[in-house]
Design brief:
The protein has helices at residues 16-21, 46-52, 73-79, 93-105, 152-165, 182-188, 197-200, 205-212; strands at residues 3-6, 29-34, 60-65, 83-87, 109-114, 132-136, 170-174, 192-195. The chain is α/β, with parallel strands linked by helices. An eight-stranded parallel beta sheet has the order 1-8-7-6-5-4-3-2. The two termini are 16 Å apart. The structure holds D-xylitol-5-phosphate and zinc ion.
């Protein structure tokens, strides 16, 4: 089954509780954390994750776009994250392993993220210990960018590796996912689709979520 993870980066932050309840038919709430260093933008941090935890029963999928993420993963777990993902480009391989281990020690799910220019092989050192791999289909930093169809080859390659080495691992895509691009992601083997502007820009949000799952045309 295809899961949808609305990105609250496209929500109205003055009405965040309401906008999280608006996506209650989704599967995860995707929370983009940006530090202004790893990416050229600053978004939200720990206090916001703590505040949204009680307003939804959906798992919080926290995407850390921050340098040296091992410094903060435990705090994000304690703030209410269910799944924490860290970029492989954000630190050394050893420190990314440490970040994953700290997330697991808190009893939470861990994932690694690949930027568009990062090859599929960069996930290999972590493939057998993570619960999710996230492939960026835009350069991280901003919502509302155009989908990079050239990332579908990487998604297919990772699907084959996951099926072989860690079949329970989820494969997520993030960036520019919309009704005209979700089919390519699903065909390439993704099972979790992040969507910000395509969800929050829709007149009928539950209908849009069903459409992105491929349930309706
Ligand atoms: C980009 C973020 C995405 C973003 C997606 O750095 O990681 O989660 O919010 O937004 P859309 O779906 O509008 O491309
Ligand atoms: Zn994201």
């Amino acid at each position: 089954m295809i899961k949808i993870a609305p990105s609250i980066l496209s929500a109205d932050f003055a009405n965040l509780g309401r906008d999280i309840q608006r996506v209650s038919t989704a599967d995860y709430i995707h929370v983009d954390i940006m530090d202004g260093v790893f990416v050229p933008n600053i978004s939200i941090g720990l206090p916001v994750v703590r505040s949204i935890r009680p307003v939804t029963a959906l798992p919080l999928d926290v995407h850390l776009m921050i340098v040296e993420p091992a410094r903060y993963v435990e705090q994000f777990c304690d703030a209410g994250a269910d799944l924490v993902t860290v970029h492989v480009e954000a630190d050394t391989e050893e420190n990314i392993h440490a970040a994953i281990d700290r997330i697991h020690a808190r009893g939470k799910r861990a994932g690694v993220v690949l930027k568009p220019k990062t090859p599929a092989e960069a996930a290999l050192p972590f493939l057998e210990k993570v619960e999710l791999i996230l492939v960026m289909t835009v350069e991280p930093g901003f919502g509302g960018q155009s989908f990079m169809a050239d990332q579908m080859e990487k998604v297919s390659a990772l699907r084959a590796l996951i099926d072989e080495k860690n079949p329970a691992c989820e494969l997520e895509v993030d960036g520019g996912v919309a009704p005209d691009t979700c089919g390519a992601c699903i065909a390439a083997g993704a099972n979790v689709l992040v969507a910000g502007s395509a969800v929050y820009g829709a007149a009928d949000i539950p209908a849009r979520i069903a459409q992105l799952r491929g349930e309706t045309p």
